[in-house]
Every structure is written in C-alpha cells, then in structure tokens.
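DM from R.C. (forwarded with permission)

"hey, sorry to bug you on a friday — could you get me a structure for this? deadline for the figure draft is monday and I only need the backbone to look sensible"
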Amino acid sequence: MRTNAWDRVAGVLVGLEAAALFVLVARQVMALLTGDTESLESAIALVVLSVVGTVAVAAFAAAIWRGRSWGRSGGIVTQLLILAVAGGAATGAYAEPVVALAIAAPAVVTLVLLILGVRAAGREPAAGE
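My reply, with the result:
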C-alpha cells in the first residue's frame, strides 16, 4: 500500500504515544528499583504489561507510517483506549478535567487522522490498475 500524508502524520503521533509509554515504563522500573511499590508481584506484572503495550503501540506507529491497514486498525483501538482513560480521569471522586482534556485532545486528533488515512487509502487505485 502507498502511504499518504494522513498516515505519515498519524504515524508520527502514534510514535510519540509509544515514546510516552516508554517514559512511563522507565518511571515504573525506577519505582520498582527504589522500593516505591506496595506489592512487588503487582509492580512486576504492571511493568511487563506496560512493555508489551509499548512495543505494540510502536509497531502500530511503524505500520501506519508504511501504510499498512493493520497498523491503522491497532492505532484506532489505541486511541479509543486512551479516550477511555481520559473519561476515567474526568469522572469519579478524584476527577481532574484538565488532565482528562490533556489526555483526550491528542487522541482525538490522532483518531481523526487515522480515519482520514483509511478514507484516503480506500480511494487509491489497487496495484496494477
């Protein structure tokens, strides 16, 4: 598949999300090493799951950059999960609407770009046409 401008920009944004997840993993590892955890087993499990998520989001970013449809699909799911986290940050006893907005705004922009990339890919002629 050929890539388009929407895919390139969306790929960069999803790559930045992967970089942010990497920073989160580094913070979790530091907390683990300094003993700033209540449960060692839970902290290790959280680090492992965070690493898996980081690798997946980075793979989505690379695939989006290359115009692969599975990358866009994974990127869309990622943005929906981020929006769910933002919804959780906006509600509840410890609601932080500003934090929720800071989490949701890039996800909405990236989601729109991913959908535009899907639409643009659907209009491109197939190989050999």
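R.C.: lifesaver. Residues 5-121 form one domain.
me: no worries. The two ends are 13 Å apart (CA to CA).
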